[in-house]
What we know:
Elements: E1 3-6, E2 9-12, E3 17-27, E4 33-42, E5 48-56, E6 65-73, H1 75-83, E7 88-89, H2 116-128, H3 133-153
Antiparallel strand pairs: 1-2, 3-4, 3-7, 4-5, 5-6
Helix pairs in contact: 2-3
Amino acid sequence: MTKRIVDGVTYNTATSTLIGRAEGDSDDERGRSYEWTEDLLQTRGGAFWTLNTRLTEREGGEEPRETIAVERLTRAQAEKWIVTGEVEVFNNPFGDPPEAEEEPDPSATVYFRMPASLKSGIEQAAKRANLSVNAWLMRCAEGCVQADRLKVAE
């Protein structure tokens, strides 16, 4: 169990929910190797935080040195933590991203967040054009890229 008080609030592994874990091996600035884990947790009050543990090898056969650090994350930072990098997710309070699919033609998928009002406007515009939202957005993006190419060519 790890319990830390940071800026007057408690972060406790015994009372928080483990959301996910990343782990690996690295070398420090002195060339010493160390193992690290980074756990993403959520308190009962809903705050997100990471518990970073680092085991650094010591010379002369001494026991590795353990360093622990706690960092509070915003909800957006916690969600980004889950979807970027290589992490094992145990409990995802944000809902899973789309399942990976084979694409029939060489294309790419882009995910981005937008205000609900913009999404609503896009859906209405696509409906008026009798297009799917995806097709409407692709036409808009193609138009912007074409306009940018013309500017660069000038």
